[in-house]
Amino acid sequence: MILDKLSNSNLYTPIHKDFEKVFDFIKNTDLEKIDLGKHEIDGDTVFVVVMEYTTQDVSECKSETHKKYIDIQYMIEGAEHVGVTTLHNEEPTTPYNEEGDFMFYTLGNLPTIQLKKEHFAIFFPDDIHQTMMQIDSPKTLRKAVFKILK
After folding, report:
1. Taking the domains of the chain in order of start, what are their residue ranges?
2. Which strands, in side-by-side order, build the sheet including 2-5?
3. Residue 109, pLDDT score
4. How far apart are CA 127 and CA 66, in angstroms?
5. Nearest by Cα to 50 from 61, 60, 37
6. Residue 29's Cα: distance from chain center in Å?
7. CA-CA distance, 72 to 144, in Å (whole number)?
8. Is residue 66 a contact partner of residue 125, using CB atoms and an 8 Å limit?
9. Residue 82 in contact with residue 112, Cβ under 8 Å?
């Protein structure tokens, strides 16, 4: 898991051949005005889902992992807490959903980070992450979730 501000994105482009495509898209697209939903960047290899939602109490939020894709989650507007831990021997509470590339877990008391405006988090397939968590109270945010085929 990586958490950083967009101005440091150049530090992470050597990690994966397609990370530069994501950071270029962020820097060259008006993400505040782009339509909600899925936008292809490089077919199914790199795409983004732009979403808006209201953060919730931690008890309402699910933990998940992915098998095929790396997530780069970029906060366009707002902020949220994100629970994170490394996958060890945790058992998913749902079977793997191949179409959506996710498995859910029921975990409590995960360490949290704060994902705020103009910051991004990178979640690799062995990173359990729990998003949508409110900071002080429910608030609406706008976020871009980039999916990069590992």
Report:
1. 2-149
2. 2-5, 119-123, 69-77, 140-149, 46-54, 37-42
3. 87
4. 8
5. 37
6. 18
7. 8
8. yes
9. yes
Given a cut of 90, whether residue 53 has pLDDT beyond it is yes
Q: In angstroms, how far is the first alpha carbon of the chain from the final one?
A: 14
* Adjacent-strand bridge partners of 79: 116
Split at pLDDT 50, 70, 90, the class of 7 is: very high
Residue 14: strand, helix, or coil = helix
CATH superfamily, domain 2-149, is YhcH/YjgK/YiaL (2.60.120.370)
Residue 60 is encoded by which pair of tokens?
A: 């309402």
Q: Which residue has the tokens 């990690």?
A: 15
- The amino acid present at 102, given as its one-letter code, is F
Separation CA 110–CA 88 (nearest Å): 14
- The average pLDDT across 121-149 equals 97
Summarised one tens digit per residue, pLDDT across range 17-45 is 999 999 999 999 999 999 999 999 999 99
Which residues have C-beta within 8 Å of that of residue 77, sequence separation ≥ 6?
Answer: 32, 117, 141, 142
The model's confidence at residue 5, banded by pLDDT at 50, 70 and 90, is: very high
Fill in the amino acid letter for 1.
Answer: M
